[in-house]
Amino acid sequence: MWIPYDIRASLKAESDPSVIRLSRADESVRDFLVGFFLRNPVTQAWELDLVASPSGQDLDDGAAPAGMRITFHGNDASKLSEVIYRLPATSAQDALAKAHADFQPRMMRYLAEIGRGMAIAGWRIADTGHGARWRCTPFRPSAMHLEFDTLAPVEGDLVPVIELFQRARNAPDAASRLMAGFAVLHAAYAGHAALTGSGAEGFRVTQEMLVHAGAMEFSSQFLGLALGDLIAAIRPEHARLTTPEGLLAAVSDDLAAQQRLAQIANLTDLVSHRLILAELKMRAKARSAVLPNARADGEPLYALGEQIC
């Protein structure tokens, strides 16, 4: 089951709807709290290899922007796990944008200084005046059962294509996911020999795909597009990530641009998966015509299992 890995464009309300409505209707400047959860991209643990007190330590007033209070919090192992901003803003999104604009280059300095991987895992926001709270954090999906006995290794010609999809699924950043997924889309549209059964010629972007990818914001641009038209629509986003020489471009996006990129990357990732699944289904049906006892429905051989705790 494909799930979106990057949900930066969404905020999940954690307070009563009436409280959320009051906060959204209030356009006055007031105090907000924005907490950034941090992640080590190597261990995937929600902590960085930086020492910080579990009780919290404030950034000196002289080092913090005017009007902002920044506190670094360590976990029980005294490793930095969350950075909390207190700042004036007019809305949750305004507070997040301001805090992110300060923290992203600040974290880049830490990364460059010690040479270790660092990433923002998600965030939480609180409107202290109204008691409204939001959160944006990755969720852990249900564990799944695979019928290992019935799933033979993928054919050799498909391995390079699925490795591209693997890179999209394994990448911790939206840019890498978009570029890897885009390569699968382009291969299918160009008639790659391993994807002749992917249904590329009849593909259309559906509303279900946009909802699943968290990309309904792009409904007017993407809904109903054929594969070639979708590639053309995504190509400018892909092109700005690389230089004319084929190198990775040095791109520094603000939060709004990162959220847009994440949504497009999610859709690209999802479509690449649909094309590969269609190819696998076609091959399963072709085999069943030769081997009547082979499973021919082409449906994914898994069932939902128990929730991971």
Please explain how this structure is put together.
The chain is α+β, with helices and mostly antiparallel strands and 309 residues long. The protein starts with 11 loop residues before the first strand and ends in a 5-residue tail after the last strand. The chain has a seven-stranded antiparallel sheet. Strands 8-9 form a two-stranded antiparallel ribbon. 39% of the residues lie in helices and 16% in strands. The model is unreliable at 296-309 (pLDDT under 50). The protein contains eight helices and nine strands. The protein is elongated. It comes from Paracoccus cavernae.
Ordered list of secondary-structure elements with their pairings:
Layout (H helix, E strand, L loop, with lengths): L11 E2 L3 H9 L4 E10 L17 E2 L10 E6 L5 E10 L2 H23 L4 E9 L4 E5 L7 E3 L12 H12 L3 H16 L17 H6 L6 H4 L4 H13 L15 H36 L11 E3 L5
Antiparallel strand pairs: 1-7, 2-5, 2-6, 3-4, 4-5, 6-7, 8-9
